[in-house]
Amino acid sequence: MNGDEVEVLVGVMRLREKIANIEVVVNEIEKPKEGKLEKLQKQAKASESNLDFDEENQNAELNIIGKRTDEAEDLLDKFLDKSYLSGFQKVRIVHGIGTGALKNFVHSFLKNHAHVSRYTLAHQTEGGNGATIVELAK
Questions:
Q1: Taking CA 126 as the corner, what is the angle to CA 132 and CA 131, rounded to the nearest 5 degrees?
Q2: How big is the chain by its Cα radius of gyration, in Å?
Q3: Residue 123 has what DSSP assignment?
Q4: Which of 33, 65, 91, 111 is positioned for an S-S bond with 60, CB 3.0–4.6 A?
Q5: What is the rounded CA–CA span in Å between residue 90 and residue 69?
Q6: Phi, psi of 69, rounded to the nearest 5 degrees
Q7: What would the mean pLDDT of 60-80 be, rounded to a whole number?
Q8: Looking at the domain 47-136, which fold is it?
Q9: pLDDT tens digit string along 73-115?
Q10: Mean of the per-residue pLDDT values of the chain
Q11: Pairing, β 13-18 against β 131-136
């Protein structure tokens, strides 16, 4: 390279270009399109369908199979808050078996949550390695 060229990274490619041909571009922040907003609202409604509260029999369950950890974190926090405030003593979180990444995330999340007194993998009849039983603080 000589003094009037620069090296530009475009993805994984390195290109050399004359400085005179380089232009600074500033992107404005893009407002969400109506379609994106509607999609987010649908996702929020769908996440509510992952919650199963049977207050009569004191059962609460959250199914997060197939969720990413960032999605699961929000759902877990809301679920534990609602369960605690509803007076549940035990709840079940269904995370599936898969690679174990979601289960590990759930367990590390539960370890530091204020409403959790202890947790354990579910008995085989309750989901085994694919579910976690959580005892809530009193």
A1: 25
A2: 24
A3: P
A4: 91
A5: 22
A6: -65, -35
A7: 91
A8: Ribosomal Protein S8; Chain: A, domain 1 (3.30.1370)
A9: 999 999 999 989 888 899 999 999 999 999 999 999 999 999 9
A10: 81
A11: unpaired
